[in-house]
Amino acid sequence: xxxxxxxxxxxxxxxxxxxxxxxxxxxxxxxxxxxxxxxxxxxxxxxxxxxxxxxxxxxxxxxxxxxxxxxxxxxxxxxxxxxxxxxxxxxxxxxxxxxxxxxxxxxxxxxxxxxxxxxxxxxxxxxxxxxxxxxxxxxxxxxxxxxxxxxxxxxxxxxxxxxxxxxxxxxxxxxxxxxxxxxxxxxxxxxxxxxxxxxxxxxxxxxxxxxxxxxxxxxxxxxxxxxxxxxxxxxxxxxxxxxxxxxxxxxxxxxxxxxxxxxxxxxxxxxxxxxxxxxxxxxxxxxxxxxxxxxxxxxxxxxxxxxxxxxxxxxxxxxxxxxxxxxxxxxxxxxxxxxxxxxxxxxxxxxxxxxxxxxxxxxxxxxxxxxxxxxxxxxxxxxxxxxxxxxxxxxxxxxxxxxxxxxxxxxxxxxxxxxxxxxxxxxxxxxxxxxxxxxxxxxxxxxxxxxxxxxxxxxxxxxxxxxxxxxxxxxxxxxxxxxxxxxxxxxxxxxxxxxxxxxxxxxxxxxxxxxxxxxxxxxxxxxxxxxxxxxxxxxxxxxxxxxxxxxxxxxxxxxxxxxxxxxxx
Length: 569
Description:
The protein is α/β, with parallel strands linked by helices. Among the domains are: 106 residues, no CATH class; 116 residues, no CATH class; 65 residues, no CATH class. 50% of the residues lie in helices and 7% in strands. The protein has a 9-stranded parallel sheet with strand order 3-4-5-6-7-8-9-10-11. 22% of the residues are buried. The N terminus and C terminus are likely disordered.
């Protein structure tokens, strides 16, 4: 193994940097056919034999995994793990326990550089868990449907389960065109037989063109993806975020790649029904319907899910009954996101009835970009007036008239536990909203862009929201029940100027540092004085111990010398 490098001789280095050809010179046409480059100094540097052996073993670790001897040094161990390929299969490297190797693998696989930097600043980060999770996601996303073997993937899933706690699957591989070859050939043969017997020439041409374009008319039942029932083996999984979306298609775009069959959703439901530790389930950007929706919710009824999300999943108005049954069965749900669907009156009415009878304490409800009618929105807001748990409500993008807007105003006026309200692009009456907000002392944020408010009305809304935030930060205002002196002092300190408070903190830190430095100096002076006294004692005793006959003085000298040397060490 040879390397080309500049020699370490200073004279040669000076000559090299002075006379080496520039980049412009090398780019000249006369230099294109050069075979000898005199400016490149070639020196031979051969690595030690043990290092070469370790590099060879590391590069072949994928095909011939080995167990390193226990007597190997730390430098050799570092060399071995540094030369293992990052693209090694997960089943080949799962037994490696070197954190530096897993950190290097995570840095190579993760595309978010800011996230890598953030992870590096955290303490007690398990790089092995993060890296195995990335490799497992990569395996599921990039394995084609045709080569997917459920038994092998299930074994890999079981081995990875102790390290995987969160999955974010952004794409899945669908069936390729070659998988439908038999179906296409069968249709062509039937068309040819029919044309040869009864069809005219024009009908035969039309049937041939239809058979050539049969890939454009695949039914939903044939749009299969990889089997996701293997996710049930991830016993430690707490969060699952998945999307039935294809990888980047470019010119190979086809509408069928965005469809997925009922078999796919049944496999997913069978897998998540076994995830007893699952707390977050998110399905994003997938073409769902009422049957798929009910299949997923039935699987989630046996799990204590806290956050449920169906974000832009094209759900229609026939999903209300399944949603109602799920709300009655769950007791742990606190976050429900149904943004970007086609829920209308029927589903929203079921949602309102479900919230009345549900045992769960829902704190987040997102219904933005749904075609909700005025009557259903008014009924929902009336239900939320008596709901004592909701803190964040998002209704942006809903087209409603005065009836729906009045329901929102009434919800703000009732002084519910609501903290944040999103009503972007909903036409509101500014005077009614300000009058309702004037009575509400708890809500802290209202996002009302595009609501038809004037600049003065938006300014008044912001002033009232700042009032509410100030009351939350200073609970003593208007509260006559708190009388403890310590609490009152804490309140006084909190309303001081933050720059002044920071100055007081810095002053206390400086005082503590000065006190510690003073104590350290005193200890140092005491040690010096004790050492000086012992040196004087040693000097005085040595005067009386000039002869060898004085045995007692000799023993005393040795004892003092031993004591002095020990303290000095």
